[in-house]
Amino acid sequence: MEIKQYIGRNYNRYLMDYIRDKDGMPVETTKEMQKRIKREYQLMDQVYKKQVGAVPDLYCIMHSNTSSYGDNANVSSANAASLEKMFKLNVNREGFSYNNRKSSPYDLTRFQPQAWWWYTNHLLMRVKDDLPAKEQKQIKFVKGSQRRCKKWQLVKGAAEFKQNLIALTSESESNGLLTLKKAKVVDCKLNCEFLGNKIGQQTVYLKTQGTASGKHNFASYLSLSLENNILYLRQKQGGAIKTLYKVDMFKLEDDKPVSVPKDKRAALSSELNARGRFAQNSTTAALYKLKAFKKKRQKAKSVKEGAKEYVPEIQIQDPGDVKAELTVKGSSLTLTVNGQKLCQRQIKEQAAGGVALESAFGGFGQSQRNIADDVYDGAFKDLVITSPAGNWSHTTGSIFGTRSLTGSLIICNKLNPA
Asked: What residues pair up with 283 in beta bridges, in sequence order?
């Protein structure tokens, strides 16, 4: 765990392969590997019988999605020799929840709910996707506030209305789309906090024209979108989509850049400390600790000194949190993100139009775990649209409208929670 942030995808499970050196070459013979793996199962048998009283029938091999029981045919055979004697069932793959009578008892598949599945509909969408078509209708998605839900038209996916938040779950490797009924806005100010994970897409559409069919096919719109941690401000008119502004959120928030050499130094220092913690004796532990100390003090070139900046790969579970404010008045537009005014420019004026929300699958990123998780949750918190002209009256629902004393119109999903 101490070096997890540094190794990324460069790791393996010792039961699934030969033990290898830094260049990927085996450091043990096939007989040594077979003896080692056999010994592991013997120890497993002893621990279960001592601590539990018996070996359970079901086993879940680590890690999944290899060829049979390992990354190598010889290793797979070594696992099979012990595994199939000790257990009656084995979960050998992950990514899908459905098994039937034709499934091999030693090649069962599962999906594993993850900590970043913040909303119930994510789990339900995954289960629905795995079921045979005739059984998918049995899945009933969570809607939350029925009063708010009735004010929206769900075009695709699943939507849950939770107090001051709308969670829009996409369909597998596709999108989710939600449109607000009877909505017409011209000049307005949009405030919204985007809470979906960094890999994926969550979009607010304003001034939409045309019929939605689950894709970006509105005839015209103005949109603010977070896509794999990049913020886009776009306008569509006359069939052409123009990017008005674009910013990488990592670079925007990266006020203390770390160089590749400094990151490598920190990784090696952490590895040495970890080795010291688990050393066989105090002398070896002290030597590792000394090496870690020297490595930490070793000179490493910084970004200011010309070294390349270290940019970590986004993982599928990385949470996002972006607060945005977009003001549109005639042909003038202003965008503020996380308190920073980023864009102020002139645009082509657009006619009044509707409001829509979208979430979309953004790819698997560099996640080695649960790679088949192709469902995405867009999360729109404290969505507020203010229209100074007071030309939109929408009084109930997930977005709540009311006229203030100044004549402005506030459309907000945090008012009057059910």
From this structure: none
Place of tokens 């999906």: 111
C-alpha count within 13 angstroms, C-beta hemisphere, residue 75: 23
The total of other beta-carbon atoms located within 10 Å of residue 213's CB is: 10
User: Burial letters for 14-32: b for 16+ Cβ neighbours within 10 Å, e otherwise?
Assistant: ebbbbeeeeeeeeeeeeee
User: What's the rounded Cα separation, in Å, for the pair 45 and 239?
Assistant: 66
Cα dist. 161→200, 363, 377, 399 in Å? 20, 25, 13, 10
* DSSP bridge partners of 237: 240
pTM for this structure? Answer: 0.72
What local confidence, expressed as pLDDT, does residue 402 receive? Answer: 34
pLDDT band at 371 (very low <50, low <70, confident <90, very high): low
Q: What is the 3-state secondary structure (H, E, C) of the chain?
A: CCCHHHHCCCCCCCCCCCCECCCCCECCCHHHHHHHHHHHHHHHHHHHHHHCCCCCCEEECCCCCCECCECCHHHHHHHHHHHHHHCCEEEEEECCCCCCCCCCCCCEEECCCCCCCCCHHHHHHHHHHHCCHHHHHHCCCCCECHHHHCCEEEEECEEEEECCEEEEECCCCCEEEEEECCCCECCEEEEEEECCCCCCEEEEEEEEECCCCCCCCCCEEEEEEEECCEEEEEEEECCEEEEEEEEEHHHHHCCCCCEHHHHHHHHHHHHHHHHHHCCCCHHHHHHHHHHHHHHHHCCCCCCCCCCCECCCCCCCCCCCCEEEEEEEECCEEEEEECCEEEEEEECCCCCCEEEEEEEECCCCCCCCCCCCCCCCEEEEEEEEEEECCCCCCCCCCCCEEEECCCCCEEEECCCCCC
Which range (35-39, 54-58, 68-72, 402-406) has the least confidence? Answer: 402-406
Sign of the dihedral through C-alpha 240, 241, 245, 250: negative
Q: Measure the CA dihedral 387/388/390/394, to 10°.
A: 20
| Terminal Cα distance for the chain, rounded | 42
